[in-house]
């Protein structure tokens, strides 16, 4: 039970911590100064949403996200959000692939090298189906999370930062809503694909509370670090590298590798959501659908990593607010609908 719960916890975190989050770009886009309360609210909202999505997925024993989406947003809006989830997963996976190119550029290698490497790796991963993604998440994410926390705490101690020095300034607390909403749709897509594999409600609680708490703590420390280098965040495509500019080269290389794996696991989660939905219509091998999907994504990566995040993420964050509201009040909606019946 605990092991299975941890497995789903790492899947949730792997879906959320991608190029945007791990690089610091997504956090800075939504949070920044006066956001401590916003991050705590995000952790709470995120946990509640995960519980709601997994409960529906578990009850439906779903193999893709459509039945889960129907229960969350209602029959009338299902088609709208079905299209929106597909577009969201498609474009955010493009962002992950572009993030791999940006990581390659950070070491003075061609942009297309990074893109080619991640595409080949994704195809190889899905030769093993869903189990390949679950296995790599359990192996990579503990290392990634440990490395990221280590770097951020090292920076905090080295710069003699006070994590709670700005606690009285909380005017940006509303940012919790679009930031949580941004991360909801991919979770519906991914967790909707594994409902038939969840065995108990205890797994749901372990995965949801564990992922919410982990992401909340890391987000708080990370955002506090970014505030100290606010002027340099504008210059760096990947803000994490601004934090690490005075670190030993070996540490920079190590974190770059971990950043790439964060990009990779989120891209893999996005691909899983897309192809599990396509397979409902096209009865072809998983790896073949993955190949065709990736081919259509390649041209869009030319737009660049930070540009895609800057314009697409805030739009998605606002559009998903209705889904967030439905999830936060899911038990009340259920009772209301039963009363009407």
From TrEMBL:
Record flagged with keyword Acetylation: no
Keyword terms, alphabetized: Membrane, Transmembrane, Transmembrane helix
Sequence intervals crossing the membrane: 38-59, 80-99, 111-127, 139-157, 173-192, 204-222, 251-274, 286-305, 311-333
Position of the signal peptide: none
Keyword Ribosomal protein in annotation: no
Domain of life: Bacteria
Name of the featured protein: Membrane protein YkvI
Organism per entry: Virgibacillus dokdonensis
Organismal lineage: Bacteria, Bacillati, Bacillota, Bacilli, Bacillales
């Amino acid at each position: 039970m605990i092991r299975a719960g941890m497995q789903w916890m790492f899947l949730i975190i792997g879906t959320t911590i991608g190029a945007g989050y791990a690089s610091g770009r997504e956090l800075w886009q939504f949070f920044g100064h006066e956001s401590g309360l916003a991050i705590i609210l995000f952790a709470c909202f995120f946990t509640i949403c995960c519980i709601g999505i997994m409960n529906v997925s578990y009850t439906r024993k779903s193999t893709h996200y459509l039945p889960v989406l129907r229960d969350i947003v209602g029959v009338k809006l299902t088609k709208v959000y079905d299209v929106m989830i597909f577009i969201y997963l498609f474009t955010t996976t493009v962002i992950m692939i572009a993030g791999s190119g940006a990581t390659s550029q950070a070491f003075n290698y061609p942009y297309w090298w990074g893109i080619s490497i991640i595409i080949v790796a994704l195809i190889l991963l899905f030769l093993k189906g869903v189990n390949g993604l679950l296995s790599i998440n359990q192996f990579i994410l503990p290392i990634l999370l440990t490395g990221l926390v280590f770097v951020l705490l090292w920076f905090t101690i080295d710069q003699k930062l006070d994590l709670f020095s700005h606690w009285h300034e909380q005017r940006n607390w509303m940012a919790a809503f679009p930031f949580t909403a941004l991360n909801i749709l991919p979770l519906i897509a991914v967790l909707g694909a594994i409902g038939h594999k969840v065995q108990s409600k205890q797994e749901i609680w372990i995965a949801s509370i564990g992922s919410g708490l982990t992401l909340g703590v890391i987000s708080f420390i990370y955002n506090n670090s970014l505030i100290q280098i606010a002027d340099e965040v504008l210059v760096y495509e990947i803000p994490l590298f601004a934090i690490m500019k005075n670190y030993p080269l070996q540490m920079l290389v190590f974190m770059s590798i971990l950043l790439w794996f964060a990009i990779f696991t989120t891209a893999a989660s996005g691909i899983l959501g897309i192809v599990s939905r396509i397979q409902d219509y096209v009865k072809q091998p998983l790896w073949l659908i993955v190949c065709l999907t990736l081919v259509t994504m390649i041209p869009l990566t030319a737009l660049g990593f930070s540009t895609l995040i800057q314009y697409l993420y805030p739009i998605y964050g606002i559009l998903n607010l209705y889904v967030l509201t439905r999830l936060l009040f899911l038990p009340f909606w259920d009772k209301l609908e039963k009363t009407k019946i």
